[in-house]
């Protein structure tokens, strides 16, 4: 981390960081979107006017404000305006509907709710009214943001240790959990990301994920620390987005494993021409990364790939560094930054550090999530190498118990990812009266590949050295694996629901 970034990393609050960066490089851009560009100085000035407008509507320090907005410049401005006021903000992913949104509004006791009006054919304002949301207002362009004279504002927050952020877990198998964060925990996560990636003021980043995701502030802290911009994508799809990457000279892209695969697929369409000429680094996290994917990206795209490990509760846990060895970058999640303590208990990864959340809205969930020593139970399985790199081996719920033997779904997935007729794969355990659980591989094939058979899959895995008792007993070939809309993680619970009643 350079001297300037190191100095900025001592900021007590997110607003403190905005003020410091605006003072250093007021005319440099921070957000780029279409024809629009917002500078660091402009971010501070516009956020203060919006904060004054919100204040005029009754928003005060500690007021709970929910917002369900797409990845736009206005969304970032509103979020920083709320940070300036010291309000408690609860971002909601834009594609959530009545069940999840109603749950978030009720549990957070939101007093205001910002929505985008009609977005992609869905009327968010009507949904808000249907749910009985309080003080609903629309944010669909810069002019729609509240506006006022900053002279009316109270002093900004003096400390960053109060809970001012409520993020929501995906709630794929039950109601979402409200995750409590402070400015300091978000600053810690973003600072760790910035330090690991070795970026500079000459870089150009990109946000192809929802700004309402925990990665939104994580990434923005990095922009503020190093003073470089990011291109915002309200809707990410390839090849359509490539023009914007090229136009702005993006040097750092990514998001998660699915994003790497999409970029690689585009590169394979024109193997003799670099798909994004300025790109030098793909980076992300949020989902397992097969070693084979790392090697393919580096070899075929001619860029470095660094992958990390994070979650809503802890936005940055470990991260691969660009100067790490190829072996560590391919097979590990990187190392934890200073201040992140990792403990392995009975194979489970547990965490303690400033980037760890304060718990959940529900005290009972908080008590269950932390052990007696104050470490967060992640539910992930793994181990630390001699060099301090973290290797994830799966999730507690992804351990398949077949005839009393534990089988790692991730081990089988990593091997199958190297098969030329496999585009992506998810391995799940299905209920089985005789075995307890049987191993089922669900495969998404690349275009033009010959259809796989169970015999071909098991033969391939045998040759790769997989033990016989771990071989899949069921194969399903699908057009597309079910994914969420944030970091495009595969939703294994849907596969279990779909195939639990089938026997092959």
Automatic annotation (TrEMBL):
Q: What residues does the AMP-binding enzyme C-terminal domain cover?
A: 411-485
- InterPro entries according to UniProt: AMP-bd_C, AMP-bd_C_sf, AMP-binding_CS, AMP-dep_synth/lig_dom, ANL_N_sf
Occurrences of domain AMP-dependent synthetase/ligase (ranges): 20-360
User: Pfam families recorded for this chain?
Assistant: AMP-binding, AMP-binding_C
Entry keywords, A to Z:
Ligase
**Sorted alphabetically, which Gene3D superfamilies does this protein's record hold?**
3.30.300.30, N-terminal domain of ligase-like (3.40.50.12780)
* UniProt superkingdom: Bacteria
Signal sequence span is none
GO molecular function annotation: medium-chain fatty acid-CoA ligase activity
GO biological process terms held by the UniProt record: fatty acid metabolic process
Q: Tell me its family.
A: Belongs to the ATP-dependent AMP-binding enzyme family.
Name of the featured protein? Cyclohexanecarboxylate-CoA ligase
């Amino acid at each position: 981390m350079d001297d300037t970034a190191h100095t900025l990393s001592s900021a007590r609050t997110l607003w403190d960081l905005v003020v410091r960066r605006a003072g250093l490089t007021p005319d440099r851009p921070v957000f780029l979107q279409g024809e629009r560009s917002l500078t660091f100085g402009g971010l501070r000035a516009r956020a203060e006017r919006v904060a004054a407008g919100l204040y005029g509507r009754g928003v005060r320090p500690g007021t709970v404000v929910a917002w369900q907005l797409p990845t736009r410049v206005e969304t970032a401005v509103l979020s920083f305006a709320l940070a300036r006021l010291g309000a408690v903000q609860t971002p909601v992913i834009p594609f959530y509907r009545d069940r999840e949104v109603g749950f978030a509004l009720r549990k957070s006791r939101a007093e205001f709710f910002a929505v985008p009006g009609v977005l992609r054919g869905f009327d968010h304002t009507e949904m808000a009214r249907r749910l009985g949301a309080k003080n609903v207002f629309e944010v669909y362009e810069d002019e729609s943001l509240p506006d006022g004279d900053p002279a009316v504002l109270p002093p900004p927050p003096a400390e960053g240790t109060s809970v001012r952020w409520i993020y929501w877990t995906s709630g794929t198998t039950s109601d979402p959990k409200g995750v409590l964060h402070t400015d300091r925990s978000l600053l810690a996560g973003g600072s760790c990301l910035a330090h690991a990636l070795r970026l500079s003021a000459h870089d150009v980043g990109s946000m192809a994920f929802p700004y309402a995701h925990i990665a939104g502030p994580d990434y923005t802290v990095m922009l503020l620390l190093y003073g470089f911009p990011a291109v915002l994508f309200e809707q990410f799809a390839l090849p359509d987005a490539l023009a914007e990457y090229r136009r702005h000279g993006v040097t750092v892209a990514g998001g998660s494993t699915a994003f790497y695969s999409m970029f690689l697929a585009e590169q394979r369409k024109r193997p003799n021409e670099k798909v994004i000429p300025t790109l030098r680094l793909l980076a992300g996290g949020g989902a397992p990364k097969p070693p084979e994917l790392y090697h393919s990206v580096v070899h075929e795209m001619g860029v470095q790939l660094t992958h990390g490990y994070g979650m809503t509760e802890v936005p940055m846990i470990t991260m691969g560094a660009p100067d790490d060895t190829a072996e560590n970058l391919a097979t590990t999640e990187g190392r934890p930054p200073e201040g992140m303590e990792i403990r392995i208990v009975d194979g489970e990864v547990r965490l303690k550090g400033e980037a760890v959340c304060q718990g959940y809205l529900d005290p009972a969930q908080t008590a269950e999530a932390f052990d007696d020593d104050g470490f967060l139970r992640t539910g992930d399985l793994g181990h630390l190498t001699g060099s301090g790199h973290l290797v994830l081996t799966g999730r507690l719920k992804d351990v398949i118990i077949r005839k009393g033997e534990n089988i790692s779904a991730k081990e089988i997935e990593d091997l199958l990812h190297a098969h030329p007729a496999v585009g992506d794969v998810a391995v799940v355990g299905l209920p089985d009266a005789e075995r307890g659980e049987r191993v089922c591989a669900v495969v998404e094939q690349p275009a033009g590949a010959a259809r796989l058979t169970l015999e071909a899959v098991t033969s391939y895995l045998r040759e790769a050295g997989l033990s016989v008792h771990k071989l899949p007993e069921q194969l399903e070939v699908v057009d597309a694996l079910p994914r969420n809309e944030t970091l495009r993680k595969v939703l294994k619970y849907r596969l279990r629901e779909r195939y639990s009643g089938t026997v092959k």
